[in-house]
Amino acid sequence: MRKPLPNRHWRRLTARPLLAGLALAQLSVPPLRALQADTTFTYSRIPLLTVCTVDSVMPTYTVTQPDDGTYAIGIKSEHVPGRMTVTLDGRTVYDSGDYVKGSSGMRLKVRGNSTGANLAQKPYKLKLSVKSDLLRRGNSDFKHKDWALLSMYVWNTAFPNNQSNLTTMTGLLANRLVGLDWTPQAEFVNLVLNGQYMGLYYLIETVDKGKTRIDVDKSGYIVENDRQFWNEDLYFRTDRMYEYHGWTYKYPDEDDVTDSITTQIRDYINAFETALYDGSDVSEYIDLSSFARWLLAHDILGSTDYHGSNMFVSKKDYVPASPTSTKLRMPTLWDFDSSFLAGDGNWSNQHLFDTYYFPKLLERPEFVAAYIAAWDEVSPTFLQRFQAAYDSILSVYATTFDESRQFHRTIYPSECPRDFKTQVSEQIELMAARLTTMEALVEGLREEALGVSSPVVSDGSGQREVFDLSGRRFGDANLSALPHGIYIVKDGRGNTKKIRR
Predict the structure, then answer these.
(1) What is the rounded distance in angstroms from the CA atom of residue 339 to the CA atom of residue 96?
(2) Collapsing DSSP states into helix, strand and coil, what is residue 331?
(3) Which of 145, 203, 220, 445 fits a 20 to 30 Å CA distance from 251?
């Protein structure tokens, strides 16, 4: 374990036990049955990823929990070195070469916390010795050393059989359609590890610094408001953050973190927290639209995970002479296991619970305005674009996913029981219902917080006058012809009402 840096303000948790956001520990999963990969893979759209570790050593892990017994299960796993190849339609499209530290090969370890500890199909973290784009997009900017393999199975009671294979895909679509800074790209792969078939996985980009990932400068940073902070060698805390959370590093790497870097990051976030709780201007410290869109995505997904929902924060750079020259942003979502569990008529738990900053931000008209503006921008075409994206995905995977799904079920008999087309229909149906809920919720928020209602038509009471918020008069204007914005309408009886266009 790395020695702590001097003067680091670390502390352990001392508090009552917490309930799990998802009771994965209660899952009953079948034991992994050995299945040698002597079957020829002919699925032209789904790559075969083959890993052979040195001496065929399988990656292992240990389960960890905080010393004080608070519920926040984690795992510790060490990298295992080896060689990885990727074949597609009978052609080798990637070969890492044998493992030579810093020169070739790759390393593999079990990742995740409750998922890594409890699922039969373990998720993995891949670390390449040399940067490469495993998704083969033809641009060197996509090359990176860090990748992940996410398990196909997601326990979720919103779906038949209490499971889904597409919530990760749906979450990534929501991330993109809401307009967050970066959406991780992913594809399905079949994994063979040391000659044993391990199932169908998502191969996905991980949260990290990069031109085509989260684009921050060398002086910038990416940190996570992390429930499992106690499981990391390095972390820090800020004054007003939730008592069971701490900040952990995605960038800089832990080995590059100095006392001064931690002080800069901690002091900046503390300044934001002070402004938030003292009623001062927070827009100096955070990008309101970025935070609002992150929350909006969770609300659209109807997620219920509020402790471990991967709250990543980025800052483009840090200039000591002008610390607020760039602001904190929430660049991306990650982990969609609890999507669609909020229920009809309910916000996401991120909207409601004070484990992060959102309930406090929602007390501020400027944040509510940013949230509503984001909704007004994306909602008119969201479902149409969501369906179109899945139509495109169906054209690629409708057949090949189901071929791999049947092979997956030979070692995980209770998983992937429904075909791809059926699962896509389930996702679209749930999303349509969720957007209907959101329409009502946002209109209620609009009227309660801003005193602004939806557009109205003339009630026949006589001449109508329309003004914008600067007082400019539009006469008896056709509202549909006006630019988007907020207006004051005065009817023939002298009644006034704020409307949005």
Answers:
(1) 36
(2) coil
(3) 203
* pLDDT tens digits for range 180-217: 999 999 999 999 999 999 999 999 999 999 999 999 99
Distances (CA, A) of 414 to 30, 155, 402, 434, 486: 8, 12, 15, 28, 53
Contacts of 25-34 with C-beta under 8 Å, sequence gap 24+, read: 25/73, 25/114, 25/117, 25/118, 27/118, 27/119, 27/155, 29/118, 29/119, 29/120, 29/412, 29/414, 30/120, 30/412, 30/413, 30/414, 31/120, 32/120, 32/121, 32/411, 32/412, 33/410, 33/411, 34/196
Residues 6+ apart with CB under 8 A from 444: none
3-state DSSP assignment of residue 132: strand
Q: Provide the pLDDT for residue 34.
A: 40
Pairing, β 186-193 against β 48-53:
parallel
Least confident of 29-38, 226-235, 352-361, 394-403: 29-38
* Tokens representing residue 176 in the block: 């993109």
| pTM confidence score | 0.83
Whether 216 contacts 222, CB under 8 Å: yes
